[in-house]
Write a structure and sequence with these properties.
By secondary structure, the protein is α+β, with helices and mostly antiparallel strands. It has 14 helices and eight strands. The chain has helices at residues 3-12, 14-34, 64-75, 78-88, 94-102, 111-122, 144-201, 212-243, 246-268, 274-328, 330-365, 388-413, 420-427, 442-451, and strands at 39-47, 124-128, 134-141, 206-207, 210-211, 371-379, 433-434, 463-464. It has a four-stranded antiparallel β-sheet. A two-stranded antiparallel ribbon has the order 4-5. It is elongated and about 195 Å long. The chain starts with a helix and ends with a strand.
Length: 466
């Protein structure tokens, strides 16, 4: 069948096609008018997904999608819907009770509250406003005022439930951490008692966190180092004092002057002269005084150096004895350090558990859910369902298609010759002449060539009778 044959069939059966189209449109329009209308209402909430108000933990970033998905599920949760049912008092409404009983459901299915809550969930939708952190809640009802009232209750119940989820979780976790804190406190007390008993049993006294014997050894070692440093300073002072004694130096100056006088007297008076002998006697006396002064200085320096060496020796003996005592007590001290580390560990565990418990207590006591109400709910006075225009358009399209199908079926049941193409198809031979037809226009001939299927046995043209 060529396209022109198909169009001739449609043109011939246009009444059937029109009837089918109009029938479908009338039926669809009637049904659309009889369907219960649904009016949408919306309420918006601003989500604070940046950080937790207590812990400061980030809620945004890579976890935004999961967080938003969780909030949408909470909106359609039975706890939110059940709270709306309770606030509306639907479970006590006689009409709702009658409808519930007519549905054939029983208490095993959750009862009337679950049945009503599921109806609210089925009519509730939510989604994010594009390019923002605003969550929009949508609800549809048979009355715009009712839809507006219910969507407001859904938003209120959602905010309450979101806060309750956070505080209940923090409260349950806080109870567990409170138990762990009590256990940590008991463990810390036991460890401290064991440490105290061990110290009393072994006569251990801690000085600044260090055993008294170890502290004494450290003090002796410090004193020994100080004495050794003092010895070096003393040796340097002795060397300097021996090299330059003030008394001996003064006498040495006088001796040099007398030596000069003695040399001059020897040259002028001779060694037997009384004056020379007198000067020589004074020189000898002065020499003896110099020797005595140097002897006293050396004796004093030796006494001082000996005292320092004796002090160092005593300190070395004390350090050796104290080191032996500390080494003998090493197993005891090791056990002391082990018990001390255990006490420190228990204290750290207790402080960490206590801090976490206080933090969770704050979370459980918070009154902000991180949600901000965005204006009043809005309801549309135009029904969102049914969409009459769309239904009518689709029914017209469906009716037209049904009419075309019916026209083709009717044509194949009672096939007629509507053009020379049909005659050529029915006879199986080419059509040579069309009698009584008006001469076609060049445009019509061109269209027929484009749309019609030419028989290969036909000639290059048709004979036209006038």
């Amino acid at each position: 069948m060529s396209i022109i044959q198909f169009l001739r069939i449609l043109l011939a059966r246009w009444k059937l096609i029109l009837a089918a189209t109009l029938a479908c449109m009338v039926v669809a329009t009637t049904i659309a008018m009889l369907l219960p209308k649904r009016y949408p209402a919306t309420a918006r909430v601003l989500l604070d997904i940046k950080s937790d108000p207590v812990t400061g933990e980030a809620l945004g970033g890579r976890n935004d999608r999961g967080y938003l998905g969780t909030q949408m599920l909470v909106i359609r949760d039975m706890r939110v819907a059940g709270a709306v049912v309770d606030k509306l008092g639907l479970a006590n409404d006689p009409a709702m009770i009658a409808a519930y009983e007519a549905s054939g459901r029983t208490a095993a299915d959750g009862g009337i509250r679950a049945w009503l809550g599921q109806q609210i969930i089925d009519n509730t939708e939510s989604g994010m406003v594009s390019g923002s952190n605003i969550l929009e809640i949508r609800y549809q009802a048979d009355n715009p005022d009712r839809a507006k009232a219910i969507v407001a209750l859904i938003r209120e119940a959602y905010i309450d439930e979101s806060l309750r989820l956070r505080t209940d979780r923090a409260g349950r976790t806080g109870d567990w951490f409170r138990e762990q804190t009590d256990k940590s406190r008991e463990a810390l007390s036991t460890a401290e008692r064991d440490l105290s008993a061990f110290m009393v049993k072994n006569n251990i006294i801690l000085v600044g966190g260090v055993d008294s014997e170890s502290a004494k050894l450290s003090a002796l070692q410090a004193a020994l180092q100080q004495a050794q440093g003092a010895q070096s300073a003393t040796d340097a002072a002795v060397t300097v004092r021996l090299a330059s004694d003030p008394v001996a130096d003064q006498l040495q100056v006088q001796l040099a002057s007398i030596e000069d006088e003695l040399a001059l007297a020897g040259a002028r008076l001779g060694p037997e002269h009384p004056t020379y002998k007198s000067i020589l006697a004074r020189r000898n006396t002065l020499q003896r005084q110099i020797n005595i002064a140097r002897s006293k200085s050396a004796a004093g320096v030796s006494a001082q150096s000996g005292a320092v060496r004796q002090s160092i020796g005593e300190l070395e003996k004390q350090v050796a004895a104290q080191s032996k005592l500390v080494l003998d007590r090493k197993p005891v001290l090791d056990e002391l350090f082990r018990l001390s580390r255990e006490v420190d560990l228990k204290r750290q565990q207790y402080e960490a558990a206590l801090a976490r418990t206080d933090q969770l207590r704050l979370q459980a006591d918070q009154s902000e859910a991180g949600l901000v109400v965005m204006g009043d709910p809005q309801a549309s006075r135009s029904p969102s369902y049914p969409k009459v225009n769309l239904i009518v358009a689709l029914s017209a399209l469906f009716g037209f298609g049904l009419g075309v199908l019916a026209a083709l079926i009717a044509e194949f049941i009672a096939r007629r010759v509507r053009g020379h193409e049909d005659l050529s198809f029915a006879s199986g031979v080419p059509v040579l002449v069309t009698v009584g037809a008006a001469a076609p226009s060049p445009l019509r001939q061109r269209i027929q060539k484009l749309l019609g299927r030419r028989d290969p046995d036909a000639g290059d043209g048709e004979l036209q009778a006038i």
